[in-house]
Design goal:
With about 300 residues, the protein is α+β, with helices and mostly antiparallel strands. Helix content is about 25%, strand content about 35%.
């Protein structure tokens, strides 16, 4: 099978991308307002010795500190479609809107919806060409990034930042049972396929998680979710209300998820509150999968 390798940098955003992107996902690469090729992720791994494992990328060197940033996180990709397409085309509207609202490429990745994937899967021709040779297994030293409540990053251990919590909760909601329980509590009938997307840019900010119809016909139905690290505040609730209003009548609910919901914050209108928790010692490092399996969420009304 032909395949290529993409490298993701050794930063907190890089660790987030590595954990958030799943085997089986489809990806394209954006540069200079163009989308380059469609790939499928067939494997992912993190290497301890990135400068010794092909393909070789020169580390990024920060001028002020002299610190070097390597590319230990690797995505093994199978080319699916060959294209170089400007993002101004209608089929890339969801992507272009996110880039416009956020003001450019300032994060490692963001998600498009199923409609975009369906349209992109039909353009140009199936990919052709020769892939890379696999790396020597004897040279591979594999590790799993771990996360803990720490301010400083240590070797293979990253601070448990809000973007990591967002990814954990999004992946949790991909579980059919968990999503069904959430919809039941909101009194929403699951009448067709839904997709659980990551950050969605709006004029007033970013919806951390967006649940929507995968293939809307006639009208859409959306649930906006705002995730907070630590305790929620009235300001956070008002921020979510603004997002719900911006999304309009098709946004049937907004949910503020935090570790702690103060008693004075009560469900109102389309706004609801949920607490997430980890029955783990978060001062110690845990892998993304360990955190995902442990996380619990519950409504606070």
């Amino acid at each position: 099978m032909r395949w290529l390798t993409a490298g993701v940098p050794d930063t907190i955003n890089g660790a987030w991308a590595f954990c958030d992107i799943k085997v089986g996902d489809f990806v394209t690469f954006l540069y200079a307002a163009k989308a380059y090729r469609l790939y499928k992720v067939v494997e992912k791994f993190a290497v301890k010795n990135p400068s010794s494992v092909p393909p070789y990328w020169e580390p990024l060197v920060f001028k002020e500190s002299g610190k070097k940033c390597y590319f230990p996180f690797r995505l093994k990709l199978s080319p699916i479609r060959d294209f170089v397409e400007p993002l101004t085309k209608e089929k890339f509207a969801y992507i272009a809107e996110n880039l416009l609202q956020r003001g450019g490429y300032w994060k490692t990745h963001f998600q498009a919806d199923q409609t975009t994937l369906s349209q992109v899967s039909q353009i140009e021709e199936p990919a052709a060409g020769r892939g890379e040779s696999p790396p020597d297994p004897e040279k591979l030293e594999i590790f799993e990034p771990r996360f803990a409540r720490t301010k400083k990053r240590e070797e293979e251990v990253y601070p448990l930042r809000e973007v990591i919590i967002q990814a954990i909760l999004r992946h949790r909601l991909l579980d059919h049972r968990v999503l069904s329980e959430l919809l039941d509590h909101l009194g929403i009938q699951k009448e067709e396929e839904l997709e659980v997307l990551g950050e969605k840019a709006l004029p007033q900010g970013y919806v951390d998680i967006l649940i929507k119809r995968a293939r809307p016909r006639g009208e859409n139905r959306m649930i906006a979710i705002e995730v907070k690290l630590g305790g929620a505040t009235e300001k956070d609730a008002r921020q979510l209300e603004a997002y719900v209003e911006e999304l309009g009548r098709e946004c049937v609910a907004g949910i503020l998820m935090a570790e702690r919901i103060p008693r004075h914050l009560k469900a109102r209108g389309r706004i609801h509150f949920m607490e997430y928790s980890f029955p783990l010692d978060l001062s110690k490092p845990h892998t993304f999968q360990e955190l995902l399996q442990a996380v619990g969420i519950a409504f606070k009304e």
